[in-house]
Records
---
Amino acid sequence: MLKLHGFAQSGNTFKVAFLLRALGVAWQPVPMSFADFAAGATRDPAWREGVNEMGEVPVLELDNGVKITQSGVILTMLAEQHGRFGGTNADEKREVLRWLFFDNHKFSSYFATWRFMKSFAAKAPDPAVAAFLKSRIDSAFFVVEKHLAGRQHIVGDSLTIADMSLSGYLFYPADESGYVLEERFPNIAAWRERLRAAPGWGDPYEILPGERVAPKW
Ligand SMILES: N[C@@H](CCC(=O)N[C@@H](CS)C(=O)NCC(=O)O)C(=O)O
């Protein structure tokens, strides 16, 4: 059975769980407690050596023990293997890839970093760093907000891994990031609501293992 290394707070892990569930593939979590992650479990040399040299989750472990990392690669691999959620023609597949790159570089990445600082970091966020990250988040969110005007999905007219990837961090409670999408990004908020009804969707804190942690700052 496929094994997914990750933890509940990890939106990148959630992206993969969303797809596995949508595909109806059997999988089991390899839990890591948030406390262990925060204490540096993925940066441990032995963990890097045995699981992922990049020091990151998610990691999808195949039946033969091969470990695949980077959510975008995992999503693409599974979508290709199953012929689902990867785009219905060559143009859509390229569009999906384009949005996966954008997500990894500018959308999930800055937002996840900011949420981590605001909710889980040991020290309160530095105001200058917070201002920088929020300006980067806003510009990435406005790109997606505009793109979603008049569209139901990120690519084409059905659910793809681009939707799963870009939305990966948006289902966590608003107090973890301070972003209330309805107030400034109504198209993103409406798309998020549609995704809650999509096949495979579930609340990250219910479908991934691990304890909830109250936001700190
Ligand atoms: N681009 C990577 C990002 C993975 C990532 O940043 N994962 C976080 C947890 S959600 C992590 O393990 N961070 C460890 C670190 O940055 O030291 C992906 O999409 O898989």
Note: The mean pLDDT is 98.
---
Amino acid sequence: MTTIEQPVEIDADKLMQFVFRAVDEVGATLNSALVVLGDKLGLYRAMAGAGPLAPAELAERTGTAERYVREWLNAQAAGGFVTYDPDSGRYTLPPEQAVALTDPDSPAYLPGFFQIAIGSVLDSPRIIEAARTGAGLGWHEHGPDVLDGCERFFRPGYNANLITGWLPALDGVAAKLERGALVADVGCGHGSSTILMAQAYPNSTFVGSDYHRGSIETARQRAEAAGVADRVRFEVEPASAYTGRDYDLVTMFDCLHDMGDPVGAARHVRGTLKPDGTWMIVEPRAGDRVEENLNPVGRAYYSFSTLLCTPASLSQSVGLALGAQAGQARIEDVTATGGFSRFRRAAETPFNLVYEVRP
Ligand SMILES: C[S@@+](CC[C@H](N)C(=O)[O-])C[C@H]1O[C@@H](n2cnc3c(N)ncnc32)[C@H](O)[C@@H]1O
């Protein structure tokens, strides 16, 4: 039987609304590049606390070309990142934007968020190819904006929550760390979390591991610079094979869902943890059902997941591809299959869920 397609009625107003929404989206996409540019050229830092500046003044302070700076400032003003005073022709970075764009110690610090977004977009032609074949793209195959952006994106959240919120939320763990515990930080990347814990708990010893050699080399440099290299050892190992045993605490920050074989990793954690030890898993905030994640945070995470996390997992053996919005039930299932019997949500922020997993 032949199907006769009914003509679909187009609502012209809705169509125009969508087109204008797209103008906003394209402006935001381009602005990601402009934020990274402003960060790398020091434009925001030069504006912070400086009061109203003319383009030529900002260009002079940053050693940049006035014509580019003027155009960049107008784009920033149109997007509400800076304000513009038509009478004086000067631009001001409001104090709240100054904190978010220039203060790396603030939990609201944003440049890393934009940098990893731009890095993901720059690497996206390879994802177009991978999506045709189902192949993966490993974390190690990404450019520096993904790797450095990731470190800069996550570190403010760890600074704000890890020592004061997440670790104390785990049963008895902070006390063990105070006394002196053995900790494995798996999938540690550039080692922000490892170093932060080592600084807070000088009696404890830390082993950071990641399968990506370049990340581990950076982590070692960071530990030297932070003066904790005597208590922190970094090794290039996948989560299924990091060395050592009898750990009091194993941590995984935003990496379990990136792994090809998270169940295999769970089994290795089970085998290397003390019987009374704790596995802390930090994952992106997500509900169990798709419809719970259809919000701005879920949108950003599903997008990162399409360009980074899912291809990372598919590039490894098993290729389970949990995705960055796996949700608590799926993560619990992975830990139970890996041999753990206790699982609870110990803490949460608008961006992360923190799980306590025990044998
Ligand atoms: C999103 S990054 C998070 C890095 C770090 N934990 C942080 O919070 O900054 C994910 C990390 O997982 C690592 N990774 C992915 N698969 C892995 C595996 N099978 N074993 C160990 N590390 C892995 C990547 O190399 C990358 O450093």
Note: The chain has a mean pLDDT of 97.
---
Amino acid sequence: MKLYAHPFSSYSQKVLIALYENATPFEYRSLDDLSANAELASHWPLKRFPILVDQSRTILETSTIIEYLQIHYPGRVRLIPEGDAGIEVRMLDRIFDNYVMTPMQKIVLNQLRPEPDRDSYGVTEARGFLDRIYAWLDERLAGRAWAAGDAFTLADCAAAPSLFYADWAHEIPLTRTNLRAYRARLLARPSIARAVDEARPYRSNFPLGAPDRD
Ligand SMILES: N[C@@H](CCC(=O)N[C@@H](CS)C(=O)NCC(=O)O)C(=O)O
């Protein structure tokens, strides 16, 4: 099983965390490597990553990859609970991807554009989105150890990299104590600490300038 991914990429970390949680063996095709990039393009013309290639099967989209891992390579940590409990997990996974990761990417990617092509309206909108989702998450997480309750799940795999970088791009206010404490708990979890450490050498590439913390 091959994962095409890059250590500094937030969506790559989402899947790496799932793999590390269950010590699932895989071949890491790092996109630092030119031949891995060519292989990625041959599997997925949009070249969005990570992707998982398991023999003749190509799995796209991080949430689906993690679902695939659970079905085909189950481990001690069940990342998507069965039945109704799975609804909260899947819902929060979509919320972290769509309403934390997407506005965070908007702010970060805007910085990579040439000055005349920057979208200040879109960035202001993205910052407003983050303010509102931080407030919503702060309430939702009250009394919870992990995103969906007592167990670590797919939702936490999505939460870790999205909140990690969102806080760099648009800091979580000090008043959002539940959310800030949750982010700190995520960073202390060994699978996540490992993904963050592997990305450390690339921090100088963060377009907004990486803060001196985490
Ligand atoms: N919805 C996709 C998003 C993947 C994604 O946006 N990945 C980023 C890296 S973190 C990417 O491919 N960026 C390169 C690009 O946009 O061309 C998923 O869940 O897999």
Note: The first strand starts at residue 2 and ends at 5.
---
Amino acid sequence: MSARLHLDQRAGDAPAGTSLFEGAEALGVKVPTSCLKNGRCKECVVEVTGGMELLSPRSEPERHLAGNFRLACCARVVAATGDVRCHTMRRGAMRIERQAFELPARGPRRAPDPAVTRDGDRILLDGAEIARGAGPLHGLALDLGTTTVVLRLLDLETGEVLADSSFENPQRFGGSDVMARIHYDSNDGTRLLQRTLAGYLSHAIGELPVDPRTIYEVVVVGNSTMRDLFFQLSVYSIGQSPYRSVTELEVAAGARATTGLAAPARRLGLPVHPRARAYGLPVISGHVGADAAACMLAVDLAHEERLVAVMDIGTNTELVVGNQHRILAASCPAGPAFEGGQITFGMPGLPGAIERVTIRDDGAITTGVIGGGAPEGLCGSGLVDLLGELVRTGRINALGRFEDGAPGLVVDARGDRPITFNEADISALAQAKGANVAGLRIVLGEYGVRASDLDVFYLAGGFGRYLNVEASKRIGLIPDLAADRVRQVGNAAIEGACIALLSRTKRAELEELVKRVVHCRLETHPRFFDVFVEGCQFAAIDDGILAAT
Ligand code: FES
């Protein structure tokens, strides 16, 4: 008799006494590790989604973990029967676009103007020699998302993208949103979140198709918390009113000129050239971080005349509205629901995720699954599609209640477990949507414009790329604008990081531009609660100008 272990879309027998790490190896699933599988490196984190009671109690090396997270090398199957379901921090196969789409084309692309240059056999960083040799010059762009981390390797002399990679942010064990991570890091005192992420990044860098010692600069973007955690700064002040990062406080005190950061990349744990630099794009203010700044670079806001909005929907949604003359920005604490978190069968946009949903006239539900085959769960675009169809067919009302009084429905029954969707899931999505819509309405209101005044609405982010725009408008996730004004631009943050990696001029321009951005603080806005509640409803976004009180 053996228990059954289900891990990353594979399954096999796991006799009592088998560690989850051994079980994974038997199934051919690679689990990250940098130790002797003895609980030291903390990299082998897995999330247990079923059968936790069939595992050994949490051991001393797992003291830092809570909820469903375990170390694969420490957790052992102790039952002789039953099903244990878990997954590693998912790696590699996420659908992240290599290039952002429909970004402003402003004449021919300029020749690269990177900080790393060559003078004969001398390799220079900002004009100072850091190495000698005739080999290639590489740079790395990193987008540290709360949920997903994306890397892109560039040739600094040609600007060519050589490789990219992505993985689920392993810091999830410290909570799914930035406030939870801040709380975790502030109580931990050992920089475990940073070390764990650096460990994962080291593996990802090791898998790039170049010698990592030819990487001379790393440009980092992310929200304020993700960026500062990575640079080993205290994030405590970002979690306390008035929610300002260390660099923002230092700029206000006159102790530094910019919120941009620089540090030796090796000191941050990256296995690149020993004298490589890590440069963090400037943060804007509060939770409006370097990812929003990178999006501004990607859409070339510094030279934009039209009125544009950039909405990067994620666990922390970043919102920027304006043009070169005036820019407002906000950060919306949406939470992870649209990335599959807090949803019964939610999952990232990986093979096995339902990404398309249609409800036919006879009420039957048809689905499209990434990679084909039986579904394992629903990713963000599938969730938006499903909500859009439930609204279109009148199965749910504007409050998200099933009109037939049922507590939920079966979306797809083809897999080994039926994929269901219930009112608690709808409620989590409604609240995430409410936060995004509240942010949008408040920023537009402060700007004194209607959504319909926007010339371009950029929908950024890996999730935004695959959204069904019509369903998104129907449920009120994005404004009801004509199709030619909505641009799904993919990962604009990593695109902005690449622009900064290739251009010192753009970098300097951005450092000045962020100083002119006015931060709309949603948490203290008198209308926040009203517009949040309104935004939770599944109806088109109100086009009126929001009055101040
Ligand atoms: S493999 Fe290092 S802690 Fe588990």
Note: The pocket of FE2/S2 (inorganic) cluster is lined by residues 33, 35, 37, 39-44, 71, 73 (CB under 6 Å).
